[in-house]
Amino acid sequence: MSREEKITSTFVHLADTLVGEYDVIELLQHLTMSCCEILDITDVAVLLAYPGPDLYSPVPCDPSPALSAVLDLAARQGPAVDAYRAAAAVTPGHLATAPPAWHDFTAAARRTGYTYAAAVPLRLRTDTLGSLLLLRTADSPLPPADLSLAQAFADATTIGLLNARSARHPHTIDEQLHHALHSRIAIEQAKGFLAQRRSLTVDDAFTTIRDYAREHRLLLTDVARTIVTTGSLQPPKTTGS
User: Fold this and answer.
1) Does domain 3-169 have CATH number 3.30.450.40?
2) Residue 2 and residue 19: Cα distance in Å, rounded?
3) Residue 25 DSSP SS3
């Protein structure tokens, strides 16, 4: 699949919130995976501000050790926080010259090998749900075209979430956003269990879980909890006629 085809596929997937039932967690996971695959970045993370003003990292990704080391700090200071508060992209340049207010985040990021950090907001007009953190270990900043594409992905995600919240099932969407903040443990456990049981990589294990959830029209978290509870992927129960 060409880069252009991957970009088109990503926008189509992010628009799925407009046409049917979907899983917020799976949607955000797809956003991060697509960014890593398409953009010239090393690591990416979604940070949401729901409920309340603080940022959280809800997406059950497979973070590198470097990303794991900076995620908590990134939710408190740095480009992700600034992009969320300003509702605008933040591209400060090399981390060696980052703003003093980012001191702890910058120190941790540089210690783990990151050289450049940027972020774009998940926003639509006056509504801002969070931000998308983009990290690089290269000797140059993120290309402007990639930053614009990251913003377009973030905008499409936000439009889908806000549309579903207002037009289809407002309470359900808010509940899913809140639930997303607390669902990482089950999904991480399920990925690890399935990877070990089937001799898969954790990425392939997640793909298996995600595809199963889509095929059977189940929530990703529900499938993960079934794996943790039963030790296997089980077909959904059907009612006999």
Assistant:
1) yes
2) 26
3) helix
Helical pair 3-14 and 24-38, crossing angle rounded to 10 deg: 160
Averages of pLDDT over runs of 10 residues in the chain (241 residues) are 86 67 73 90 88 67 76 93 95 93 96 96 86 95 94 88 60 59 72 88 83 81 85 62 40
Class of domain 185-230: mainly alpha
Q: Provide φ and ψ at 132, rounded to 5°.
A: -120, 115
Question: For residue 105, how far is the Cα from the chain centroid?
Answer: 19
Residues counted in the chain: 241
What does each C-alpha distance from 184 to 66, 96, 220 come to in angstroms? 18, 32, 11
Q: At what angle do helices 220-230 and 24-38 cross, to 10 degrees?
A: 100
Query: In terms of C-beta density within 10 A (0-12 exposed, 13-18 middle, 19 or more buried), how is residue 237 classed?
Result: exposed
